User: Which sequence fits this backbone?
DNA sequence: GACCATATATCGGGAGCCGATATATGGGCT
DNA sequence: AGCCCATATATCGGCTCCCGATATATGGTC
């Protein structure tokens, strides 16, 4: 089953376009879901640690902006594969109830 | 957000067609997901208690077959609404990654 | 000065999944 | 006869993980 939690899924999804730092991930996840997903900070950092340990994300670079540190995370190839597989699982799960066939491209 | 767990979702989905007893729900969920979802018994009964308390399912009837008790659960109108809303959420979540638009009927 | 957005980090509580265990019956295999 | 398996319900403890609260720090707005 290789289950993935919802928070983990949206974190990976947020990193698909470009590397982001923690706070940026929270904002991006909110944007992508039209405000429905609000990642709590306590959720984020724990999840990022787990993702890094699993090799699905890596620290891209660290910066200091206005005295505040910023740690950018980048999704790995394994991370991309994992989040795409999870997207397929979500769609299949939805189909069980909707009974509708989704049009899927690449 | 009104989050619903994966186990809860598949339990409600399994009950959409007809009332089922606990063990039947486990088998039905496996069928509907092509064997991907395997509900653990410890998960099932706890989840059913929570669903009953929330009014999303009710006990339909109790039977005794071959000396073994069977308790049938039935999904309520609120349960149907909840599982449909969750299906939409899952589809929207999947779309964040796939970027594809799904064809939806009713 | 107070508050808010930005930014990272930790801790504790609570929810919930899951394997193990217990109990019970009937069928199939050896 | 003995054993395992499928069926069927129920409970318990461990573990994962989400999340709010808290702490710390800076710069802009009011």
Assistant:
């Amino acid at each position: 089953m290789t289950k993935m939690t919802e928070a983990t899924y949206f974190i990976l999804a947020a990193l698909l376009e470009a590397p982001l730092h923690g706070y940026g991930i929270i904002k991006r996840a909110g944007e992508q879901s039209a405000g429905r997903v609000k990642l709590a900070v306590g959720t984020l950092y724990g999840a990022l640690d787990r993702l890094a340990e699993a090799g699905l994300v890596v620290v891209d670079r660290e910066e200091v902006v206005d005295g505040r540190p910023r740690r950018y995370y980048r999704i790995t190839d394994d991370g991309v594969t994992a989040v795409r597989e999870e997207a397929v699982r979500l769609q299949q799960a939805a189909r069980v109830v909707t009974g509708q066939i989704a049009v899927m491209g690449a």
Summary: The two ends of chain B are 22 Å apart (CA to CA). Residues 77-98 of chain B form the longest helix (22 residues). Residues 3, 21-24, 41-42, 44-46, 65-66, 68-71 of chain B lie near DNA strand D (CB under 10 Å from a C1'). The longest strand of chain B covers residues 57-65.
